[in-house]
Amino acid sequence: MHIRGDHAELVVGGRLDVRSAADARTVLHSAVDDGVGDLVLDLSELDSWDATGLGVIMGAHRRAGRCGRRLVLRDVPPQMQRLLVATRLHRILAIEGGIGVESLPRV
Questions:
Q1: Residue 75 in contact with residue 46, Cβ under 8 Å?
Q2: Is 83 in contact with 54 (CB distance < 8 Å)?
Q3: With b meaning 16 or more CB within 10 Å and e meaning fewer, what string describes 63-102?
């Protein structure tokens, strides 16, 4: 997993899973705490995430809310969009451009 960017936009790549969760949490919390306005997470380079990785995203979302900020997901890969829809988190998280639920392939 790699995360690069600043306190306004981060690009998350690789795998966001149990092995990378602690490092990702540290980077995301620092970005939330040190910035202002929306924090955009560009997920275009993210290969996969598991429940732990999704928990890191949700934790950053809650922390951003407490800091008066908004966490915005950008370029969410289709397989991860399906997971957000299945868990109904697409109704809670801010997703740039939204998710076209009807356009997602059925599994």
A1: no
A2: yes
A3: bbeeeebebbbbebeeebbbbbeeeebbeebbbeeebeee
Q: Which structural domain range is residue 12 located in?
A: 2-95
Give the CATH number of the domain where residue 77 resides.
3.30.750.24
Give residues with Cβ within 8 angstroms of 97, minimum separation 6: 74
Q: How far apart are CA 81 and CA 32, in angstroms?
A: 23
Of 57, 50, 71, the C-alpha closest to 24 is 57
- Stretch (H or E) spanning 55: helix 51-66
Provide the whole-model pTM.
Answer: 0.88
Q: CA torsion angle for 53, 54, 55, 58 (degrees, to 10)? A: 130
16-52 pLDDT, tens digit each: 999 999 999 999 999 999 999 999 999 999 999 999 9
